[in-house]
Fold this protein.
Amino acid sequence: MRLNQSKCFLTRLVVLASCVVIGLLTGCAAHQIVKQYPVKGSYYVSRTTFNDALESYLDSRYTLSEEDRLKIEPIFHEGKTALDLWGGAIKADDGTIVDKQDAYYKIKDELFRLLFQYGILTLSPVEGGDG
Amino acid sequence: MTITPKQFTFLMMTITTAMKWAFRKVGELTEEELDVMIADEERRTEELTSQLDG
């Protein structure tokens, strides 16, 4: 009985430590990419974050009313357009990269505010981390 | 039940080794590889956006 409890505790500890390490590595990896390639790295991280948010929205949009969807979905389209313009500016290296980046960040702020407001994105502890 | 110092040291060494490995792997990323990763994400955006419209 005592041995089972010990094994259970150690398993939980290893799972928790693994979750923490994966979280840290993901964060550190993104940080390293941006540090190594500031322009393209920022764009890549933004594009990935946008896609992840869009994926979360698609998974749970059925919980929203038509009215709420009409508030959120046009902003996803604006965000995509802004990202495409930012990516185009990077490829063309036409001196408007910072402007395009700022334009996307403004839309992203509004988009994420709405996604948090409607509960599509939430801040929560690691699943199972509280024992 | 408490974790022994030996187990704790082993766990910390494993975490440190994993982080060093990850940093080294990321450090090896070339600009061409990053371009490929960006192109993959751009394709993903197109796919997801088409689902949004569908």
Residues 2-36 of chain A form the longest helix (35 residues). The mean pLDDT of chain A is 83. Residues 1-36 of chain A form one domain.
